[in-house]
Design brief:
The protein is mainly α. It contains 5 helices and 2 strands, in the order H-E-H-H-E-H-H. The longest helix is centred in the C-terminal third of the chain and has 10 residues. The protein is globular and about 40 Å long.
Length: 106
Amino acid sequence: MAEAPSFFASVYALVAQIPPGFVASYGQLARMLGAPRAARQVGWAMRCCPDELPWQRVIREDGTIAGGEYAPLRRAMLEAEGVPFTQDGRVAIDRCRWQPGEAGLV
């Protein structure tokens, strides 16, 4: 019998599917994994995220960008992908939230 993937591996598998120009929140990913109260654990997973994953596309539910010293880099990367921002500097998440299965998305 195969061993179930770790929670972190499950997070990474989802993050790998987020297309350019879209974002997902920590809580959204937790809900998609069947663990609606695990947003913080998603955050922990993202702190150890492999470099090849689109880590910049995972943001807070209110559209703010986490990342401490990397927040300006993350914003620049999202802007380069065409992610819209509000006047107060948050991602306009209602306009670019990743919804798997909608509009031809994975």
